[in-house]
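Sequence in, structure out. First:
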Amino acid sequence: MSANEDQEMELEALRSIYEGDESFRELSPVSFQYRIGENGDPKAFLIEISWTETYPQTPPIISMNAFFNNTISSAVKQSILAKLQEAVEVNLGTAMTYTLFEYAKDNKEQFMENHQPVNSTIPISSIISVETPNTAPSSKKKEKKEQLSKAQKRKLADKTDHKGELPRGWNWVDVVKHLSKTGSKDDE
């Protein structure tokens, strides 16, 4: 079988095995991610496996550079990658993506035994300085809204309908005056 046929068969197998598994994610037909550990688990990590053109005769590219792994020290990442590379060498020439994901799941505790969460993120409160404006009543006077008299309110209400809108054609006199002053070019 050619490398492409092997890859197609493995792709079908991975899709059927991990169907409905929230930890598995197919990034492309040759690149996959798997979260080892539950969501919210401080020892959870993400492995990304990408197939080369000649995979499985040549080793896949294994990465732990996902943002999800930011709290894992580079020493622990290197240790996990080294152990996974050993498994790759044992399985070279065969479909191994599933085997690598399962190997990582089975050895999660051993992989993460030296894990001390690295706080590589900066708390939002230190990035954004929240300032409350000084609202002293003496420093700023609130602008008073113009008050209408009863007569003004009544006149305004008479001009508008019950929704507060002016009736259609309310300014027709103004339009006629404007047109008579400017003169229409059709008259010439």
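Second:
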Amino acid sequence: MCSLHSFSSVAISFRTQKYVNTPPVPRLSPIGSRNYPLPLKASTSGDEIPPNAVRRKIDRNWRGGFSLGVDLGLSRTGIAISKGYTVKPLTVLKSRGQKLETRLLEIAEEEEVDEFIIGLPRSSDGKETIQSNKIRSVAGRLAVQAAERGWRVYVFDEHGTTSEASDRMIVMGLSKSERQNGSDAYAAVILLERYFSTQGLGVEIILPKSLELQAKIKNGAPVDPDFNPENLEEYYTF
């Protein structure tokens, strides 16, 4: 495998459950083929730019930082959003390639999101699959574009989210048609809920190799003077 993010980005994992007292030692590794064994180094460490799930753990009164859950499929991409402590399905996209990445950035702008949580396929034994490589390629390209805006991109284990989403929709009493149309978005909901419930354990940030872009991520997105996360309206429906 040789993809764009093999040269443009690196991954750092958050794997500690005691983040407040013992800052994590990030596992830094190149994303790409074994044909490129040279270690990659990021100027910014993972603990300097923690995901929203970890920020919430550090400060229980923290309310900022909206998260976009992304369930990437072969032909459809489910989107869910977390605002405050509420996770809701948002939409299902049928675009692919650059059009998909552009639309994800547009949605993030519209919804005042500052991080993407992208589902990473794994087998039942925890190993990555062929599809995982494709997801990492998309995440790598998106990370470079998101960093220009100060946003972060993460990948997170999505194993079992599709079946769990299906079960939930049945319990909710959704029709077969509604389940077929909304399954990807609800899988993204499960992904985000799992991400926050585990406080980001195992999530990997995809960092651009560009030091300038890393600095933009560390500084974060520009603050909107009209933004007030304490006054959120419950207007999302699927």
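Remark: The chain is about 35% helix and 20% strand.
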